[in-house]
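Hi team,

As requested, here is the filled-out complex form for the pyridoxal-5'-phosphate run. I kept the field names the same as last time so the parser does not choke. Let me know if anything looks off before we queue the next batch.

— J.
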Amino acid sequence: MISQRAKNTSPSPTLAITAKARAMKAQGIDVLSFGAGEPDFDTPSYVKEAAISAIQSGFTKYTPTAGIDDLRQAICDKLLEDNGLSYRTNEVLVSVGAKHSLYNAILTLCDPGDEVIIPSPYWVTYPEQVKLADGKPVIIETTDATGFKITPQMLESAVTAQSKLLVFNSPSNPTGATYTPEEVEAIAGVCESKGLWVISDEIYEKLVYDGNRHVSIASFGSMRGQTVVINGLSKSHAMTGWRIGYAAAPAEVIAAMGRIQDQSTSNINSITQKAGVAALKGPQETIDEMVVEFDRRRRYITHRLNDMKGVRCLSPGGAFYVFPNVSALYGAEAAGKAVAGSDDLTEYLLAESKVAAVPGSGFGADAYIRLSYATSMESIEKGMDRIGQALAKL
Ligand SMILES: Cc1ncc(COP(=O)(O)O)c(C=O)c1O
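And here is what came back:
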């Protein structure tokens, strides 16, 4: 009954652990969740007000599939102002979250058998979407020893005659690794010389620390002509539930992505679109406030983790995740059973200390676990105490 395609699609470990933690909480268990990939801040009030006024004024009908003109224009203005990238409105497509934008882009650019290069640790969704498009994920492995970044040489040696695309994600989920402008330029150079298209997932661009500056790979040389820039408001404006993401690319690509969206979902929610215009055009100070708070938590959590037995944690340059290497703990015994990898370790942490973390296995990196610090400082302090005590028992 179930298609091969559906059978081959893995569930998201992040959503799975979040659901498990939520179910435990519902039973009255005091679980601290470090699983969530969403800001713990509220959506700014001026965004909510725009949505309420959209409902009250009856803006509740179908819109053009690609999004209303105002919204696409606001996205073009944002791309010019923040990224120095000039797009027209017919080069922008608004979709149901950046996840949907990515899926449209992969379905549009990837033919069966095409190779899609994905640096690991990767966001769990990339290889699954490539498989859904009958493409072949080609993984370039990186580790904490090299800051979780690929080099131009690593990219060059992964390219074959079948290579079509690179999925590039800086700042990265799950590692927080953030490429410098010079590093991005060097990667762009390889893509240009090899004719490799890039899907550049820039959803965490606003969340950078230590003076890091985000630059889009599309801004180098002729890369604008072979890049699909993916972004959205989920992380920057604390709007995960509203479902709004977008892609910017040459008109021919956007038109093809639009055809796929026409035949699958049509436009995103009309009310969210009005909220999106308000978010992009309104005051952006809430982002700065969020970054200051995330930075405080990032420093604290990194410091605490590095003090724990068997844990080695790089200080991430962006996003809101830490991705500590916990492989020194593998082989230890927990409840009479050896901890063989990240799945066992996260299970142990949930059972022993009521702390939910995501195993690195789903991100293609079993030596690590992912903790999101998009949760209150109080929870982080408590959670670090609990994890420290649980690991000390191993
Ligand atoms: C790297 C990355 N890209 C895209 C997304 C999707 O975001 P959205 O909520 O806009 O679909 C996420 C969400 O966790 C993410 O981590």
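Two things worth flagging: The longest helix spans residues 285-306. The domain at 4-42+286-392 is CATH 3.90.1150.10 (Aspartate Aminotransferase, domain 1).

Thanks,
J.
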